Amino acid sequence: MDTGLSRRDLLGGAGAVATLGLLAPFFTWEAMASSSKEAGDKPAFAHKLPPLPYSEDALEPIIDRQTVNIHYNKHFAGYVTGLNDTLDKLEKARAAGDFSAIKSLSRDLAFHGSGVVLHWIYFTTVRPKPAGPSDAVRKVLARDFGSFDNFWKQFAAATNQVEASGWGILGWEPFSKRLVIMQAEKHQNLTSWGLMPLLVCDVWEHAYYLKYQNRRSEYVENFKNIIDWKKVEERFATYCSRG
C-alpha cells in the first residue's frame, strides 16, 4: 500500500499497542459481541451495550448531558436490542427452514446493524479535551484531500447536507487504498462496499436537537472540538496493517 508514509511514521503516533499491529481491543471489547450462548436463550452471536467511556456530562458544553443520556441509553441501546432480536429471528428461521420473512429481516439487519456500528464508532471517537491529529494523520489527510482544512471543509459540508437523518463518515476504502468522505442516510443508504469507517458524525436530530435545534451546522462545527484523533489513528493503523 502506497500511502506516502513509512510504517514507522504511520504507527508511531498510535502508541505501543498499535505498534504491535494487532490492536486486540479493537476486535474484542469494542466489537461488543459474544460468540457463546448465555443460559441457552440468546443467539450464538449476541451484542452488548458497553459502558459509556466517560461521564454523561463530560462533553459539555459541546453536547449536553441530557442529549448524551438519551442518545446512548435509549437510541444506541435500542439498536443493540433490535440487532439481537433480528439475529435471533434469523437463527430461528434457519432452524425452521422458513425464510418467508427474509426481506423484512434483511432490512432490519441492515438498519439495526448499521445503527450499532456507527453509534459505537461515534461514542468511542469523541472525548473531552482530546489532542488534535498527529503529523502522520495530517500527512495522510493532506495526501487524500489536499490539506487538513480541505478535509474538514468537505467533511462538514457532507455532514451538514445529509438529507433528513444520517451521518457524515470518514472511512478507509481498501479498494482504492484511500481515505474517502461519505454520507449515510437512514444508516444503510449511500454506502460504499468495503468502506471501513474511521470517524463519524451523527446528524440524526436526537444527537443534537435539544441544544442546537435546527442549527445543525453549528453542532457539526463544534463537534470538531471533541474528536479523539488518537482513536481515529489507531483504527487507521489497524486497517493498514491488514491491507
Describe it:
With 243 residues, the chain is mostly helical. The protein has a single domain, classed as minor pseudopilin epsh fold (3-Layer(bab) Sandwich), CATH 3.55.40.20. It is built from ten helices and five strands, in the order αααββααααβββααα. The strands form two sheets. It has a three-stranded antiparallel sheet with strand order 4-3-5. Strands 1-2 form a two-stranded antiparallel sheet. The protein is globular and about 55 Å long. The chain starts with 6 loop residues before the first helix and ends with a helix.
How do the strands and helices of this protein lay out in sequence?
Elements: H1 7-12, H2 15-19, H3 24-27, E1 33-34, E2 46-47, H4 65-96, H5 102-124, H6 135-145, H7 148-160, E3 166-173, E4 178-185, E5 196-202, H8 209-212, H9 216-223, H10 229-242
Antiparallel strand pairs: 1-2, 3-4, 3-5
